[in-house]
Input
Amino acid sequence: QKEVEQDPGPLSVPEGAIVSLNCTYSNSAFQYFMWYRQYSRKGPELLMYTYSSGNKEDGRFTAQVDKSSKYISLFIRDSQPSDSATYLCAMSGRTRDYKLSFGAGTTVTVRA
Amino acid sequence: NAGVTQTPKFQVLKTGQSMTLQCAQDMNHEYMSWYRQDPGMGLRLIHYSVGAGITDQGEVPNGYNVSRSTTEDFPLRLLSAAPSQTSVYFCASSYPTGTSTYEQYFGPGTRLTVT
Output
């Protein structure tokens, strides 16, 4: 079993819809949770980062972490065609732990 | 700043050939790493380095070597290429964000095909 499982998608939504992305994990030591966005044929870039449980909002993006269920989510409100990309969740354990465990990624297409 | 650069962008090798994937960063980051990305597998860590002269193995190190003689450069060597090494390779560098985790900056990737 993989340490981090991510809904594979692909996901296709109309412009303006809410996109919901999820990951589950098995390692209870994970404390830092990240979402990376990867455009086609590009390297991933950090989108959001959350420590421990709770919500974090940044513009149209909201990240949620539920450590009791070992479940994290990313919501994209008012989705735009420019949000079409692969979204990867990533996690790490200790403070200043530079080794990340990644999910397989979910490919999202927002239709104009 | 150019950020993280990788060369070549594309490469085709025959089984048994060796080659070096180049990675450089101009942000003075202490930590650098190599990942491979395969469909359905996500990013898997091959090797990483916490500073010049210091390297360590990641999740999938077999068949690869690394060295870190300078802060800027972190080349990845394929010793004897195999079809199983067909993948997209990403180099990343990172720095500590405050007292917590590291933000990783990724290069554009090298697409490698081994026939």
Summary: Chain A has a mean pLDDT of 91. The longest strand of chain A covers residues 85-92. Chain A touches chain B through 26 residues (CB under 8 Å).
